[in-house]
Design a protein that fits this description.
Shape: globular
Strand order of the largest sheet: 1-6-7-8-9-5-4
Largest sheet: 7 strands, mixed
Radius of gyration: 14 Å
Strand content: 25-35%
Helix content: 10-25%
Structural class: alpha+beta
Oligomer: single chain
């Protein structure tokens, strides 16, 4: 797989993602489906929730509904994190795109609505981060901001 085709150190980003721009939603309440992982992964996700930053990409934490230790959000439109998601089928694609941000590998998937979904690779739990189309600024800085918490809470390895 080409997961590590691009490497980030916090400043440079993929040109594709720098261009993220658009209108923000008028709806202040974000929603996120809560994953249903097994007990071990749930424990890792709860640990992650306790060490997540209060601010990501300059946006304050504003968790989505329904409230859960398996989901988190920042800003409006919300950058959404979901922990304990199932392994994306795209991870089996040898042509899949990926990035590395401060020691955490991510599968990159552009969504039909123009948003980007990133899912951690080579970790004991899959963590998904969705960056909305309407988000402006440094396209991958949310991943850089989240990397220390993920490295602290979710060990390297292969999720079951």
């Amino acid at each position: 797989m080409n997961f590590f085709r691009h490497r980030l150190t916090g400043l440079p980003v993929l040109a594709l993602l720098i261009t993220l721009a658009g209108c923000s939603s008028a709806d202040d309440s974000a929603r996120a489906a809560v994953p249903s992982p097994g007990t071990t992964v749930t424990g890792l996700c709860q640990k992650l929730d306790k060490v997540l930053p209060a601010e990501v990409d300059g946006r304050d934490r504003r968790d989505p509904e329904p409230a859960s230790a398996l989901t988190a959000g920042w800003g409006n439109p919300a950058i959404i994190l979901r922990c304990g998601v199932v392994r994306p089928a795209k991870m089996s694609d040898p042509e899949a795109d990926g990035v590395e941000a401060n020691g955490v590998g991510w599968l990159l998937e552009k969504q039909g609505d123009g948003s980007f979904r990133f899912t951690t690779t080579l970790r004991k739990a899959y963590v998904e981060v969705t960056i909305p189309k309407g988000r402006t600024g440094d396209g991958l800085s949310p991943l850089v901001d989240l990397a220390p918490a993920i490295k602290k809470a979710i060990p390297e390895g292969i999720a079951d």
